[in-house]
UniProtKB/TrEMBL annotation, chain A:
EC number: 2.5.1.58
Function: Catalyzes the transfer of a farnesyl moiety from farnesyl diphosphate to a cysteine at the fourth position from the C-terminus of several proteins. The beta subunit is responsible for peptide-binding.
PANTHER family linked to this entry: GERANYLGERANYL TRANSFERASE TYPE BETA SUBUNIT, PROTEIN FARNESYLTRANSFERASE SUBUNIT BETA
Any one GO biological process: prenylation
Identification of the protein by name: Protein farnesyltransferase subunit beta
UniProt catalytic activity: L-cysteinyl-[protein] + (2E,6E)-farnesyl diphosphate = S-(2E,6E)-farnesyl-L-cysteinyl-[protein] + diphosphate
Gene3D superfamilies in UniProt: 1.50.10.20
Pfam assignment, any one: Prenyltrans
Lyase recorded as keyword: no
Organism: Nadsonia fulvescens var. elongata DSM 6958
Zinc among keywords: yes
UniProt entry keywords in alphabetical sequence: Metal-binding, Prenyltransferase, Repeat, Transferase, Zinc
Summary of subunit composition and partner proteins: Heterodimer of an alpha and a beta subunit.
UniProtKB/TrEMBL annotation, chain B:
Naturally occurring in which organism (per UniProt): Nadsonia fulvescens var. elongata DSM 6958
Gene3D superfamilies reported for this sequence: Protein prenylyltransferase
A Pfam family reported for this protein in Swiss-Prot or TrEMBL: PPTA
EC number assigned by the record: 2.5.1.58, 2.5.1.59
Protein name per UniProt: Protein farnesyltransferase/geranylgeranyltransferase type-1 subunit alpha
Statement: the UniProt record of this protein carries the keyword Transferase: yes
Alphabetized PROSITE patterns for the sequence: PFTA (PS51147)
GO cellular component: CAAX-protein geranylgeranyltransferase complex; protein farnesyltransferase complex
Lineage top rank: taxon: Eukaryota
UniProt KW keywords: Magnesium, Prenyltransferase, Repeat, Transferase
Length: 457, 314
């Protein structure tokens, strides 16, 4: 740090000096041979509001923890997290009823999390696939559980999990023609999608629809007509992306919008075409909290481990578009995850003081993977690629510039499908090959399906 | 389940397939209610007893979107009397499960249904809707769904500009760092008094700029009004560099040629905007100085980003 004295007028000198002393002390503290230290902003406003109170509390807890962590503790407690995730595959107590409409999500979070940790999940193949296939809806797509209506979110989670823990025989039991008709029935004129019949229209729906279509090889020009334009309208004045036009920029929706666009084209072509890339880079960059090192989901909100993926996962896409790397502080993100997101008894969490859950465990691990790897998109290959093929041109390698504590490395991900490298690619390749022999008929004209049945199982 | 007789139905028991993974040990009550519900749905029964059952299940699991969708069908069938009571019921759920995805689309569906029926159209009380939103925001001033719902209300019922203007000022006064309030203000102004397609009043813009800078002064390191400022200027097609003099109060690193000026930086966001202005004016040395100060002193976690910005300078 240089020793410029900041001006002292108009704001509290004492607070500033304290912040600076803290920050310098922090820089002297080494947590690991990699000299991971936390960085902070020396400017502290005196005005106290609800936001600054909550922020100060989080900062204090984070700082305390980062200062107390010793080199030996600064690693991933792999076995405990594996045990935590595996526990969630056996019988779950009654309060888990809140996930009764999100069973495919639960299975995705658990099995994807285990895969990120390098666990062999082959013994889960049969039970996972059978459980999920029992949620397949007669109207196409998947419901959130037994006898539930089809919905894009569980459809995405189910297809992702089948890619992870299924095989070709099980994949061929997915009714892709019906899945396609279901997607088309949710398509809106403006290019967006609704989550289910009569349900909410938002950028989650677009991402889950496109990701499903991409994996199942059922993307058509009709399906994506106007969609990139609609996604573009979700960029806000801040540079981030929202649920739908006009709403507040939010990390979760940012990933949905950017990943959806990257399913429609090569990042360096499609992103500058449809969004203000420089504002997006700035907004994403501003999500990284200091001194915490993790990401917040919105301006002036607190750090939360799950945004390690929702915001962190945007970086491979953005970096491929602008042709630069290390646009965010990967070591600081890794430090936040390892020091603050691990529950001693297993599982990963939002922040210190909160309980872990399977959602956070998966997305914190996905964020860790993002911090540890470098991604490259094959622009040459993209030039002649067929519709729906853009999600499968990523290659990854370990980022040698990052100091990864021993035993803390996790697997690399396909950045748009959020599945370990090779998994999404295999499923897609299977359907592409199958369609070469027996093309599927995705025309909609002749059948006027009885959509009234859709609400009733 | 006590209020009605369901004994005529053949209950459809739960199943997770032949090899269940992660089965939930449902409470007896939930299990029974779901068994009956599945039977009712299979029969496509749209009745009062079906409605009451959905109430019971949603109470136990408000995320059960299938049950909400079924409920919409039932209400549609049962008609006016049930429709009027529906909002009151959703209120009670909203109070308990504010982060739920289903509540707000459901409210929208109900209000849309009500407004399509002439005899109950005037029963819609937009004031009551706003009161609910106010109460929920008092409790959680950044609740994403609630703010989104307010935007929907604004568009759907042409809310008064002045009322909403007062409301955002009030929320910003309560917490100047509430970005959701700033976002709502942008939504409001950009579609009305600062709509670029109309000839907007320059006085209104000047007034808004004063409002923004007064709020920046309260806490210069607060990012929200800075982003809002940039957003407004871009929206109305004005140059940020026209405001350069107003930024020097918050960040001053001297002018070109003055190399040894001690920088005054009360806000990293002001310094960032200045870097953009210098870049747009071709003042590369100053732009580099600003970006270096950000990377090395005022905003070190974004070191990689500031280096990228430097690489973008022509």
């Amino acid at each position: 740090m240089t020793s410029n004295s900041p001006p002292v007028e108009s704001f509290n000198l004492l607070k500033m000096l304290k912040a600076r002393a803290d920050s310098q002390r922090a820089h002297r503290t080494m947590y690991h041979s990699g000299e991971i230290a936390f960085k902070s902003c020396p400017i502290v406003d005196t005005l106290v509001t609800e936001t600054s109170r909550a922020q100060a509390e989080t900062e204090t807890k984070t700082r305390d923890r980062l200062e107390k962590v010793t080199a030996a503790q600064f690693s991933l407690d792999r076995e405990k997290h594996i045990a935590y995730l595996r526990d969630h595959l056996s019988e779950l107590p009654a309060p888990y009823v809140r996930l009764d409409a999100s069973k495919p999500w639960l299975l995705y979070w658990v099995i994807n999390g285990l895969s990120l940790l390098g666990e062999d999940i082959s013994e889960l193949k049969y039970p996972a696939a059978e459980t999920l296939l029992s949620y397949q809806s007669p109207s196409g797509g998947f419901g959130g559980g037994f006898c539930q209506i089809t919905h894009l979110a569980p459809t995405y989670a189910a297809v992702n999990t089948l890619a992870l823990a299924g095989d070709e025989l099980m994949w061929s039991r997915i009714d892709r023609v019906k899945a396609y008709k279901h997607l088309m029935s949710l398509k809106q004129q403006d290019g967006s999608f609704s989550m289910h019949k009569g349900g909410e229209i938002d950028s989650r729906a677009v991402y889950t629809a496109l990701a499903t279509a991409s994996l199942l090889n059922i993307m058509t020009p009709e399906l994506i007509h106007n969609t990139a334009q609609w996604l573009s309208s979700c960029q806000t004045f801040e540079g981030g992306f929202s649920e739908s036009p006009g709403r507040e920029a939010h990390g979760g929706y940012a990933f949905c919008v950017l990943a959806a666009l990257c399913l429609l084209g090569a990042p360096r072509e499609i992103l500058p075409q449809y969004i203000d890339l420089e504002k997006a880079v700035e907004w994403l960059s501003l999500r990284q909290c200091q001194p915490e090192g993790g990401f917040s989901g919105r301006t002036n909100k607190l750090v939360d481990g799950c945004y390690s993926h929702w915001v962190g996962g945007c970086w491979p896409l953005i970096e491929a578009a602008v042709g630069a790397d290390n646009l965010f502080d990967k070591e600081a993100l890794q430090a936040y995850i390892l020091a603050c997101c691990q529950q001693k008894s297993g599982g990963l969490r939002d922040k210190i003081g909160l309980n872990p859950d399977t959602y956070h465990t998966n997305y914190v691990l996905a964020g860790l993977s993002c911090a540890q790897h470098k991604y490259e998109f094959d622009n040459e290959e993209a030039k002649g690629i067929a519709l729906g093929g853009f999600g499968f041109l990523w290659s990854t390698e370990l980022d040698q510039s990052i100091n990864i504590p021993i035993g803390s490395q996790v697997e690399a991900l396909n950045p748009v499908h959020v599945l370990p490298v090779g998994i999404a690619e295999n499923m897609r390749a299977f359907f592409v090959t199958m369609d070469q022999y027996i093309p599927i008929d995705l025309s909609l004209e002749d059948e006027n399906e009885n959509h009234d049945d859709e609400n009733l199982v | 389940m006590e209020k009605h007789d369901y004994s005529d139905l053949t209950i459809i028991p739960h199943s997770d397939g032949p090899t269940p993974l992660a089965p939930i040990l449902y409470s007896e009550n939930y299990s029974k209610a779901m068994g009956i519900l599945r039977a009712l749905m299979a029969n496509q029964e749209l009745s009062e007893r079906a409605l009451d059952l959905t109430t019971e299940i949603i109470d136990q699991n408000p995320a059960h979107y299938t049950v909400w969708a079924y409920r919409v069908n039932i209400i549609q069938e049962l008609g006016v009397d049930f429709l009027i009571n529906e909002l009151e019921w959703v209120d009670s759920i909203a109070m308990e499960a504010t982060k739920n995805y289903q509540i707000w689309p459901h409210r929208q569906i109900i209000l849309n249904m009500m407004s399509s029926i002439p005899e109950i159209k005037d029963k819609i009380d937009v004031g009551a809707e706003l009161a609910l939103v106010d109460t929920l925001l008092e409790d959680d001033n950044k609740n994403y769904h609630v703010w989104s719902y307010r935007q929907w209300l604004f568009n759907r019922f042409d809310l008064s500009f002045s009322r909403e203007d007062t409301f955002t000022r009030y929320m910003i006064d309560l917490d100047v760092r509430n970005n959701s309030a700033w976002n709502y203000r942008f939504f409001l102004l950009s579609a009305t008094v600062l709509k670029p397609s109309s000839v907007f009043d320059l006085d209104i813009l000047a007034e808004e700029l004063d409002y923004i800078f007064a709020n920046i002064e309260k806490a210069p390191q607060n990012q929200s009004p800075w982003s809002y400022l940039e957003g407004v200027m871009k929206h109305v097609g004005q140059n940020l560099s026209d405001l350069e003099d107003r930024f020097t109060r918050f960040a001053n690193i001297g002018s070109e040629g003055e190399s040894d000026v001690e920088p005054l930086v009360r806000s990293s966001h002001a310094l960032n905007i200045l870097a953009k202005i210098y870049a747009s004016k071709g003042q590369k040395t100053l732009a580099i100085k600003a970006l270096d100060l950000l990377a090395n002193t005022y905003d070190p976690i974004r070191e990689g980003y500031w280096a990228y910005r430097k690489s973008q300078l022509a």
